Amino acid sequence: MADPGPDPDLTTRARIRDAAVVRYAREGFRVGLRVIAEDAGVSAALIVHHFGSKDGLRAACDAHVLRQIREAKEQALVTGSAQDLLLQLAAMDRYAPLVGYALRSMQAGGELAREFVEHFVADAEVYIAEAVAAGSMRPSRDEKARARYLTLQGLGALLLEMTLHPPDDPTDVEGILHRHRDRMMLPAIELFTHGLMTDNRMLEAYLLYVGDPPQEDGADRSA
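== TetR family transcriptional regulator ==
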């Protein structure tokens, strides 16, 4: 995918941030400020002026990526246009750098990565609740646990794809996401739409063993 270069309509701060997101998504967080500066058409000193440090730039990128993904997933879920949240994003080229950035954050590990995942989970609780209220998703016995499961499942599957089947060009994040979409979208949508088990025996046996999870006030117990 050809790099169109920096967008002249963006503010300098936004142009730097967007260039960093794309570069980090392609190559990880070891990339130096000089490379990002060249991508953005600015000097490394100007990056320090706007963000204070490389860590400051990373924090700004985290916040931006989380916000963009949250908005896209809210729209997709509430309108009922897709059930597999992360794969819905990966299906669109313009979101590939955002998903790629998230995956690089997971690979890097550390406190920032943990915070990133927790933000994903917290956001998932909100927009899944909105989808349940809109009638496009079923309620759950444990909404918090379901949000965490879906988030970790989506991120984990993409991480395995990137790790086990790396492309010839390691910067081809779009290729990784497209291949994963082509291989996994149908079974994912089918599973989320129709389910897997034909009866409730396994769930009932598990609930006999552990009991129902505690419910918040007003929570639906009929799932």
